[in-house]
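> forwarded from #structure-qc
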C-alpha cells in the first residue's frame, strides 16, 4: 500500500488529509513536527510527503532541505501565505508541488495522484535519445553526458525529457505546465522558469543548451561556441 507522510502540527489538517487520502486507498502516516517527520521518514518509507511550512520545531524549508540531502521522495508543500516567496523558495529547495491553506481536500488528493503518477511512470518507454554528448533514457530515467551519469530530480528529468523529445521545437511555458505539472493554471509559469534554470546548471557540460525564446518559452538546441544561446 502506498504510504503518504502528512507533516502538520494541526490535528484537523492531519485528520482531513487522512480521511480523503484513505478513501482513495492510500495509507496515511501523520507527523506533528519536523523531528517526528524525519524519524518516520526512515521507519515508514513513504512514497510521498505532504509538508507544512509552519512547524513547531524545524520549519518546513529546513525539513525539505534535510530530506533532499539523501532522498528524492516527492514533496507537496503546504503554505498559509498567498504571496509567491514561500512557493518559489520551496520549489528551489526541491519541492514538487504546493498548496495554499485553506485548501480543498479533493485538490490535495488530485495533486497527490498527479505527483505520484509523474514520479512513478513519466514518459513512455523507448530507445535512449542521443543529442550531442547528452543521452537520455526515458524508460530507465537515466541521463548521461559524455557517458557520465547526471542526477536530476523528478520534474527536472521530465522537463529535460520533454525538451529532448521535441529537440529544436519551442515549447511554451503553458505547454510545459500542462506536460510536466499537469496543470493549466498559467499564473504559475514562474515554476517552469525556476526548473529550467536548475536544468541549465546541471547540463552545463552538454553540447546542447536550453534556449529562451523571449516571451514564448524554451527549446533545446545545439550549444553555440560562445554559449550565448542559453539566455
Amino acid at each position: 500500500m502506498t504510504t503518504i507522510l502528512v507533516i502538520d502540527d494541526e490535528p484537523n489538517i492531519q485528520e482531513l488529509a487522512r480521511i480523503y487520502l484513505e478513501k482513495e486507498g492510500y495509507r496515511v502516516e501523520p507527523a506533528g513536527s519536523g523531528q517526528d517527520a524525519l524519524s518516520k521518514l526512515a521507519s515508514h518509507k513513504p512514497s510521498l510527503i505532504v509538508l507544512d511550512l509552519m512547524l513547531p520545531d524545524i520549519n518546513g524549508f529546513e525539513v525539505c532541505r534535510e530530506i533532499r540531502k539523501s532522498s528524492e521522495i516527492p514533496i507537496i508543500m503546504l503554505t498559509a501565505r498567498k504571496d509567491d516567496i514561500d512557493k518559489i523558495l520551496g520549489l528551489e529547495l526541491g519541492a514538487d508541488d504546493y498548496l495554499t491553506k485553506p485548501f480543498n481536500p479533493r485538490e490535495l488528493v488530485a495533486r497527490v495522484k498527479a505527483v505520484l503518477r509523474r514520479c512513478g511512470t513519466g514518459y513512455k518507454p523507448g530507445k535512449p535519445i542521443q543529442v550531442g554528448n547528452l543521452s537520455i533514457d526515458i524508460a530507465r530515467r537515466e541521463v548521461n553526458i559524455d557517458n557520465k551519469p547526471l542526477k536530476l530530480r523528478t520534474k527536472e528529468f521530465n522537463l529535460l525529457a520533454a525538451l529532448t523529445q521535441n529537440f529544436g521545437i519551442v515549447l511554451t511555458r503553458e505547454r510545459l505546465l500542462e506536460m510536466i505539472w499537469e496543470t493549466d493554471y498559467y499564473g504559475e509559469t514562474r515554476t517552469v522558469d525556476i526548473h529550467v534554470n536548475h536544468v541549465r546548471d546541471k547540463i552545463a557540460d552538454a553540447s546542447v543548451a536550453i534556449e529562451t525564446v523571449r516571451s514564448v518559452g524554451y527549446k533545446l538546441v545545439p550549444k553555440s561556441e560562445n554559449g550565448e544561446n542559453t539566455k
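QC bot note: The chain has eight helices and twelve strands. Confidence is low (pLDDT under 50) at residues 121-125.
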